[in-house]
Amino acid sequence: MLTDAQTGVLKGLTGKRAAIVGIGVTNVPLIRFLAGHGVRVTACDLKQEDSLASELRSLAGLDVQYLLGPGYLDALPGFDVVYLSPGVNPGQPEIEAARRAGVAISSEIDLVLRLSAAPTVGITGSSGKTTTTTLTGLILREDARRHHPARQVLVGGNIGAPVIERVLTCGPDDLIVLELSSFQLKLLEVSPRVAAVLNVTPNHLDVHPGMDDYVWSKENIVRYQSDDDWAVFGADNDVTQLMAERAPGQIMFFSASRPVPRGAFLDGDRLVMRWSAGSGPCGSGGLGAGDIVVAHRSDLKIPGMHNVQNALAAIVVCAAAGADPEAMRDAIAAFSGVEHRLEPAGEVGGVIFINDSIATTPSRTIAALEAMERPIVLIAGGYDKHLPFDEMARLALGKVHTAALVGVTADKIEQAFEEAADRAAVRPPAIIRADTFREAVEAARLASRPGDAVLLSPACASYGLFRNFEERGRTFKQLVSEFAAEAGEVCE
């Protein structure tokens, strides 16, 4: 049975003229949902009908109009509301014209948050949000299995299946966990009940007009909270610490470098949850009577200090959502990571191959380099997001002996390596330039020695080479399988 609030939202949609911009994974379920609730839907996409065959088949039989191909945005000022796909730049002139004409600009996530009768958990950050969201979902499901057998825990947003078609099945005893990108957050005027900002470093500056806009978009996850809501911030990041000073909700932190007044922190090898500033001697590293050791670093199957931070973040978020420490501990110990995130792709000839295709920014590649304990052959390069490679290059010195570079950023990355080496008065990594991704991977294999790690951590998006980072990572794993077959080895 719907709540009064849900009924009000749906009633307000009935009969509205809605344009859905982008016919894809996120918006196909949204189109079905809106058309099924009496909304006059027009689906808009730059692609032509022959390129959208599977999507259009899934919408067959619905009362939906279509605007496809060039000029697909021209009619937006004539609608009541426009729903944008997460990948659509809201700053496009046609969308701005619709906004000026009084058209409401919205998204699937905004509608989910307004319709949800279940408490919502939102997680964002420049890096780590998929791992943290996935682990948070696992912890909350384990806690539900133990203590709330009837509870649904839905996980979606920027990962998994869109939640819009399931949101009305959730009641107040259920939970919805959402990974949220800056694009999804930019349009929001409502915030989740529990919200986390893991970290903020430069990203997507090819789409956002500047860093200020990117930070503002991220902050929307907490901007509309009440003082009864929970806001979780990474204490090891300067931007998120400033956000915490402005957040209206109850504040908790996580840190891998020092104790926090309230939240989770790393104490030696212990992952500790602290509920109040008085429970332990904050700043000294000692534990008080109210502090709880949730897990040990040795319990984590996923490598790197950044994954310790992800686990700490999940602990705080789940504590705010009411999960017990034992459920946290067991879920953390069982978690083996997410595909394309420092994922072992196999070992051939004594060389391990690591798939970190998710590393679409230099900061992600820095985290990968810090996690590696072997000499590295790095595969990097791709689409230019207008991000600096200086810090990545500095950290690579002494860790990366060879870099196989591909894509339009190859020149910038090579220059960054050379300048970092000049400043440190050391030799830069050997540089291999490749015309194709396959050539880069094959060259990296030839440059590797037993005991090395061939690390795919591109520091760049995949556009121009692949449709997305997933396709890039799976291609890498397929090539590693081919290498193993050629060598007569089993790739595990």
Notable features of this structure?
single chain, Rossmann fold, 3 domains, 6-stranded mixed sheet, 16 helices
Strand content: 15-25%
Radius of gyration, in angstroms, nearest whole number? 24 Å
Using the 3D structure, state the CATH architecture of the largest domain. 3-Layer(aba) Sandwich
CATH topology of the largest domain: UDP-N-acetylmuramoyl-L-alanine:D-glutamate ligase
Q: How is the largest sheet built, in terms of strand order?
A: 7-8-6-9-10-11-12-13-14
Shape: globular
The proportion of residues forming helix, as a percent range, comes to: 25-40%
How would you characterize this protein structure?
With 492 residues, this protein is an alpha/beta fold. It has three domains: 17-105, Rossmann fold, CATH 3.40.50.720; 110-334, UDP-N-acetylmuramoyl-L-alanine:D-glutamate ligase (3-Layer(aba) Sandwich), CATH 3.40.1190.10; 343-487, Alpha-Beta Complex (Protein-Tyrosine Phosphatase, Chain A). Helices cover 36% and strands 20% of the residues. The protein contains 16 helices and 20 strands. It has a nine-stranded mixed sheet with strand order 7-8-6-9-10-11-12-13-14, sandwiched between helices. Helix 6 crosses helix 10. The longest helix is centred in the N-terminal third of the chain and has 19 residues, at 129-147. It starts with a helix and ends in a 5-residue tail after the last helix. The model is unreliable at 278-285 (pLDDT under 50).
